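User: I'm new to structure prediction. If I give you an amino acid sequence, what do you actually give back? Let's try with this one:
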Amino acid sequence: MSEQVTTVLIGCGNRGLNALGAWAKQSSKLQLVAVCDVDEARLEAAEAVLGVPGERDYHRLLDRKDVQSVLIATSARWHVPVALDAVRAGKHVFIEKPLADSAAAGRELARAAQEAGVVGMVGYQLRFSGFANGLKREVEAIEPMQALVTRQRGPFRRQFFFPEHYGGIMDHLTHDIHLALWIMGGAPTGVYANLTRGLILHDETIEFATILIEFEGGKRAASLVASMHGVQTPNVVQVVGTRGTVTTFDRKTLRVVHHEPITEPAPAPPAGLEVATVETGGEGGDTTGAMLDHFADLIAGRETVQRGATLWEGAQAVAITEAAVEAARTARLAVIGGQ
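Assistant: Good question. You get back a string of structure tokens that encode the predicted 3D arrangement of the chain. For your 339 residues, that looks like this:
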């Protein structure tokens, strides 16, 4: 049980160094043995902070027999190329969100990892929070039909201003897209969207997003509303089902309503009406560390059921942002294909 899983960090930017690298370094289940980055300054900083040797060519790390896994925190367009090389070298892969720069690339990686028999996980650390797990548990009990998730933020730093479907507000909204997909269950079938771009730098960065995800051909739906102009704006998660509702305004305390399915018009109240307050513990705590430890436990066989986001789930979230851009461009439903 004390055996550590060896790993290397590829990509030493802010998220790589200060989150994945820092947590891997202090983990009792992972042993960080090297770091890699093409930028010499970032590489030297990572070597100094994390106390492990650096390498500019990640292929040399993949050739090492003592390396069991890789943590990938490069820019999104390099996630799949690096991960595919790692998977083909028999390494387990943990990849920052978004999984890929296209859903097709994400699915290709998911298939390759499945065929190679290696563990693949995407960095949606929210999956390890008390809030997300409490929300999913309560939502499953009400048979969800409709969800609303808002993500209002202040302006982002300049490095997030680029036109791709995963840039701008989408960089953070991908967490909420994944959350909506996870709690609603089932595969999405289509997307409608309205996007507003370029109000700050007069470029093509997505700054406002209103996205409707359909499930089961429109029988169920999740709406996401987000922007980088929502300074100090409260956010909400609200799920309505055939057997009740779940609402939170702080991502910690849930207001849960349970009742029997409604079978007749008002004024008849639903049978079995109950209202409760559920405290989940919120989104805080060591969610990134818990996620990486779970990754190590899966590799070592200490756990057999994956609780973190799979590569297929990561590809599904990418498919939503891709479809949102297409739906906004055409003002039509963008159909989501299968695996």
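You can read the tokens as a compact description of the fold. Here is one thing that stands out. Residues 84 and 109 are 6 Å apart (CA to CA).
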